[in-house]
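Running this now, will post back.
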Amino acid sequence: MKTLFLKTVFLFLGTFSFVLCLRETASWGANINGSLTGKVRYFGSAPLPESEAIKSDSEVCGSNYLEETLVNFENKGVKNAIISLKKKLNPLESGETEKRIYLISKKCHIEPYVTAIQVENSLSIENSDPILHVLKFSHKDQVLYTLPLPPHGKLVKKINQLGLIQTTCVIHSFMKSYIAVLDTPNYLLSDLDGSFRFQTLDPGKYRLSIWHKSFGSIEKDIEVPSGRNLTLNFELEQK
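Update: finished.
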C-alpha cells in the first residue's frame, strides 16, 4: 500500500513538473528574440558626388571639396542610409541614459558625414584643424544654434531636437554633415553594399523608417517574428 502511494505521489509530481516545463517553454518561445536583415539599393541613375572649389584656407582644406561616395556603382548598394525601428505601441522608447556620438573636423571635412543619435543624448565635436570653424546646426529652415569651434578645440552639445539636423560651417560653406535625431534606440546605418542587420529585436510590430541624404525617406510597418529572421530589401530613387 505504501509503495502504491509513493508511486502515485511521484507520478503526480512528475506530471506537474512536466506541465510547468511546457508552460515555461511556451512562454519562453513566445518571447524569443528575432532579427531583421536587408539591403538598401538605388533605382535608376546614381547621383554624382558633390564637388566644390575651395577658395579659403586651402593650405589646410585643400583646393577642392569632394563629397564622400554614398553609392556602390557595382551592386547599386546605398551607403549611410539610416534605418530606424520604433515599436508601434510605445512611441517614445528610452535607451541609454548617456550615449555620445563623436564628430571630428579633419582637413575641413566633418566626419562621419552621416550619423544618428537618440534624442536627449550628447554630441561631442573635435577640431583637429589649426583654423577656426563656426558650426551652424539647422533643422529644416530653422537655425538651432551656431557654435564656434576654435583650432584644436572641443565642444559638447546635448541634442534635444528630433528630426534631421544639417551641420555646416559658416566660414567654409562646403563643410557639411547630417545627423538624424531619433526617438528610438533601435537604429543603424547601412554599409557600403547597402546591407544592414538588427541582430537582436523583441518580436512584435514596428514602424521602420529609412532616410538617405540623396534618396529621401520611406516608412513601412513591419512585424518581427519570434525566434526567426525577417529579410527586407528596399529600392530608393534619387529625389
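The first strand starts at residue 34 and ends at 43. More later if anyone needs it.
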